[in-house]
Specification:
single chain; alpha+beta; Ubiquitin Conjugating Enzyme; Herpes Virus-1; 4-stranded antiparallel beta sheet; two-stranded antiparallel sheet; 6 helices; metal-binding; LTN1_UBC; EC 2.3.2.27; zinc ion binding
Length: about 240
């Protein structure tokens, strides 16, 4: 964590003898260790970090917010943008139809099909990752009805709240639109093509009505309803999960 994150070494040699020591370690090295753990926690477990932040009292929240605003959020934002740019440069995201533009803390995606261009934008908030990346839809929504846009936004929001990062969100945006124009139908439980956590497509079909569902959504439906029937036509479900 040295260098980019501005964290000094917490296990190196050459500590000055006059530094205060606690349990054999200097206060400076312990401080650096705490900062490294703090950054690591939000880098790998952002959802857990946000939950911890929500349980703080108001005074502690103000301290944490100032710390992020002045030091960590700009670094997290820069790191997220850099990771996305690497994915773009590697050829893993963009296609002839799908393009991505990164402008600081703002990311714009464009999907062009049959002379129609769809756009979905992402804004990294000032206190990221204390705050979740925001999803914005332009006023012009040609080619897709309002209910479909709402389902896409819901899937994006769920993904980001559960710890998904900027690369995950852009990739989901690409898959959502591609599957839509390829004629792949939504899961009729969560109303999304792409499952927010497993990232799978709806593949389990009812033998009666032929509608398809994500396996995770269908399992949850069976568990909560205590019924082994199709969520739509109510026929007995005969396909194994």
């Amino acid at each position: 964590w040295e260098g980019e994150w501005g964290l000094s070494s917490y296990g190196g040699e050459g500590e000055e003898e006059e530094q205060e020591e606690v349990g054999g370690a200097s206060s400076e090295s312990l401080s650096a260790l705490c900062q490294a753990i703090f950054v690591e926690a939000f880098s790998t477990r952002a959802q857990g970090g946000r939950e911890w932040y929500q349980f703080l009292d108001r005074g502690s929240k103000i301290i944490v917010e100032k710390l992020f605003a002045n030091r960590y959020s700009p670094l997290f934002t820069s790191s997220a943008s850099r990771s996305l740019r690497k994915q773009i440069e590697s050829g893993g995201l963009e296609t002839d139809e799908f393009r991505v533009t990164v402008m600081g803390s703002e990311v714009k995606t464009f999907y062009e099909v049959d002379e129609t261009e769809l756009s979905l934008n992402f804004q990294v908030p000032p206190l990221y990752p204390l705050q979740v990346i925001e999803v914005h839809v332009p006023s012009c929504r040609m080619g897709v009805n309002e209910s479909q846009w709402r389902r896409w936004i819901l899937a994006q929001t769920t993904l980001l709240r559960q710890g998904g990062d900027l690369v995950d969100a852009v990739h989901l945006s690409k898959v959502q639109v591609e599957r839509h124009f390829q004629g792949i139908e939504n899961c009729f439980i969560c109303y999304c093509v792409f499952h927010s956590s497993s990232k799978s497509l709806p593949r389990l079909a009812c033998h009666t009505c032929k509608n398809k569902f994500h396996s995770a959504c269908l399992y949850r439906w069976f568990h909560t309803s205590q019924k082994s029937v199709c969520p739509l036509c109510q026929s007995l479900w005969t396909t194994d999960l």
